[in-house]
């Protein structure tokens, strides 16, 4: 309390000291107002649907909760679906469009799930608030709820995204698949306005969910054409995975120890050479990311706080606002009017 008081006093004194500078006066004297467009995310607000669809968050929460009770794997799948949406053309629900040649048909989208759940939420939202709420906003809030239901942190979701009208399969192939190097990953995240900290922290969502054996079989059997397993992987872990991966379409857990719990075991796995994806293991071994990875492994509360912050940033990535997009009436198709 006392500390807070002191901080406020300091802040106030800095402000009064700063305000009458020459720079400030110069701005006021400018003859024409300079147009500085705000970042798009500044047009989003957690109060966006307060009047137009006050029940929105409770509809989403109720549907998410009843699906996840029946099928707990849906939590991870919705979080991933949101990431794949934001990674291509920003968080604009382009991943939900279902037509020939759309992102959904890309090889990189093959194991995405949760479309039917989003459709069901959208149908109920349309019943209560017709033509009001974008699919991009629904998916973003669903990912937040999925995180909570898996045991992760809460955050306020800013709303006001619009839905895109374009979805191209070839663009979906640029979403990281698990065999990239850190430089490539950093570049991808940079394009979303995300830093190396966000990248390490958001990768922490691999503390829940599964991976198809197809995606890791190179790593188990023929790493970079050597005919062997990736040497950066624990040998006992490799043997176990080989036993679980009889078929390409079998699944293994991304977090070996606590696959259903949203915790920081993911980062501690990396210290034991038990990262399932080589990209995850690299977070631990690459100098640029290893510091943040070990910090997150040892500080669960810091991880929760930063995960919430980074998810808001992910959800703000390259969003469409106002006339840049539309409010789809069905998440699977652009409006025909
Ligand atoms: C850093 C780059 C990333 C790479 C290379 C990557 C790669 C992958 C791969 C290969 C899978 C398994 C897909 C399969 O079944 O074949 C997966 C699953 C998953 N990813 Fe990522 N991912 C990345 C970042 C993220 C981010 C930023 C999030 C969320 C914020 C995320 C959330 C998930 C979740 C929750 C799953 C489990 C999905 C399920 O169980 O259905 N990933 N990821
Ligand atoms: C990362 O991958 C890119 C593209 O394959 C390659 O050009 C680059 O040399 C790699 N960087 C490192 C540090 O391995
Ligand atoms: C391993 O990979 C190399 C190059 O990627 C390929 O030429 C070779 O046929 C593969 N071996 C097996 C057993 O799949």
From TrEMBL:
It comes from the Eukaryota. Heme b binds at residue 206. It is found in: Secreted. Binds 2 calcium ions per subunit. Gene3D superfamilies: 1.10.520.10, Peroxidase, domain 2. The record marks 80 as: Transition state stabilizer. GO terms for cellular component: extracellular region. The active site is at 84 (proton acceptor). It catalyses: 2 a phenolic donor + H2O2 = 2 a phenolic radical donor + 2 H2O. The keyword Oxidoreductase applies. Substrate binds at residue 176. Disulfide bonds join 53-129, 86-91, 135-331, 213-245. One of its GO terms (molecular function) is heme binding. Its EC number is 1.11.1.7. It is an enzyme of class 1 (oxidoreductase). Ca(2+) 1 binds at residues 85, 88, 90, 92, 94, 103. Its main location: secreted. Its cofactor is Ca(2+); heme b. SUPFAM superfamilies: Heme-dependent peroxidases (SSF48113). PROSITE patterns: PEROXIDASE_1, PEROXIDASE_2, PEROXIDASE_4. Keywords: Calcium, Disulfide bond, Glycoprotein, Heme, Hydrogen peroxide, Iron, Metal-binding, Oxidoreductase, Peroxidase, Secreted, Signal. Residues 43-335 form the Plant heme peroxidase family profile domain. Pfam families: peroxidase (PF00141). Belongs to the peroxidase family. Classical plant (class III) peroxidase subfamily. Belongs to the peroxidase family. Ascorbate peroxidase subfamily. Removal of H(2)O(2), oxidation of toxic reductants, biosynthesis and degradation of lignin, suberization, auxin catabolism, response to environmental stresses such as wounding, pathogen attack and oxidative stress. These functions might be dependent on each isozyme/isoform in each plant tissue. This is Peroxidase. It comes from Salvia splendens (Scarlet sage).
């Amino acid at each position: 309390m006392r500390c807070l008081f002191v901080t406020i006093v300091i802040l106030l004194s800095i402000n009064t000291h700063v305000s009458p500078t020459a720079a400030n006066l110069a701005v006021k004297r400018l003859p024409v107002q300079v147009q500085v467009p705000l970042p798009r995310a500044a047009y989003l607000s957690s109060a966006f649907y307060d009047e137009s669809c006050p029940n929105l968050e409770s509809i989403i929460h109720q549907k998410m909760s009843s699906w996840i009770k029946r099928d707990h794997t849906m939590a991870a799948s919705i979080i991933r679906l949101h990431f794949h949406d934001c990674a291509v053309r920003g968080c604009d629900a382009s991943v939900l469009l279902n037509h020939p040649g759309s992102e959904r048909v890309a090889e990189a989208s093959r194991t995405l799930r949760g479309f039917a759940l989003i459709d069901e939420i959208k149908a109920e939202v349309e019943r209560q608030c017709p033509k009001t709420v974008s699919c991009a906003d629904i998916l973003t809030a669903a990912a937040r709820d999925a995180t909570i239901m898996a045991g992760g942190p809460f955050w306020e979701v800013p709303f006001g995204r619009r839905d895109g009208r374009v979805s191209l399969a070839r663009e979906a192939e640029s979403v990281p698949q698990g065999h990239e190097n850190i430089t490539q990953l950093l570049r991808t995240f940079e394009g979303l306005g995300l830093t190396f900290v966000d990248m390490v922290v958001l990768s922490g969502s691999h503390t829940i969910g599964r991976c198809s054996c197809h995606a890791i079989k190179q790593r188990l059997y023929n790493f970079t054409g050597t005919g062997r397993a990736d040497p950066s992987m624990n040998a006992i872990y490799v043997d176990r995975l080989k036993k679980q991966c009889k078929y390409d379409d079998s699944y293994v857990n991304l977090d070996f120890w606590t696959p259903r719990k949203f915790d920081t075991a993911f980062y501690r796995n990396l210290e034991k050479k038990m990262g399932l994806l080589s990209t995850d293991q690299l977070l631990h071994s690459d100098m640029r990311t290893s510091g943040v990875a070990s910090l997150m492994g040892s500080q669960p509360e810091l991880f929760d706080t930063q995960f919430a912050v980074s998810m808001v940033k992910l959800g703000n990535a390259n969003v469409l606002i106002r006339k840049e997009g539309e409010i789809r009436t069905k998440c699977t198709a652009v409006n025909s009017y």
